[in-house]
Amino acid sequence: MKCAALTGISPSVIAELKTGRARTLELNSAHNIITLTEAAPGECIFMTSVNGEDLSPGDSGIMVDLLALTISMKRVEVVNPLYYEERERMSARVKVQFRGTTIARGVEERKWGDPTMVEIIRSACYRAG
Looking at CB atoms within 10 Å, which of 5, 40, 71, 96 has the fewest? Predict the structure, then answer.
């Protein structure tokens, strides 16, 4: 199954998602926002704590269902007696729900500005522990 990949996600966030409750995350990293521009609610997303540059076949992660997606621009103003600075920051808010554990079977080659796509294998072997 081919799906978009969100990389560099905190292990504590992944552990929280594994409890099964739907959660809303705010993502600020450019590579993850670029990936989400190609995603739509209802799709499956691969999430891993591995950095995007290091993502390779065999890396583990989780599959989540994308329930809601909002990409927005926020304006940040810094006022100082010497200058006035205005910045814009893009962020993505996603509501996701855990679907299962998985590993990446293949990682699609990409250039800067392209979404991160992976081929995943859903885990079929479980062990008590």
Answer: 40
CA–CA distance, 104 with 65 (Å, rounded to integer): 17
pLDDT for the residue 1: 86
Distance between terminal CA atoms of the chain? Answer: 28
pLDDT of residue 17: 93
The answer to whether the CB of 64 falls within 8 A of the CB of 17 is yes
Residues in contact with 73: Cβ distance below 8 Å, sequence separation at least 6, in sequence order: 88, 89, 90
- State the Cα angle at 57 between 51 and 61, rounded to 5°: 55
C-alpha count within 13 angstroms, C-beta hemisphere, residue 103: 8
The mean-pLDDT minimum among 8-22, 82-96, 109-123 falls in 109-123
Q: Domain ranges for the chain, please list them.
A: 2-122
Q: Alpha-carbon distance 117 to 58, whole Å?
A: 14
pTM as predicted? 0.83
Instruction: Please answer whether residues 94 and 81 qualify as being in contact, where contact means their C-beta atoms are separated by less than 8 angstroms.
Output: no
Fold adopted by 2-122: 2.30.130
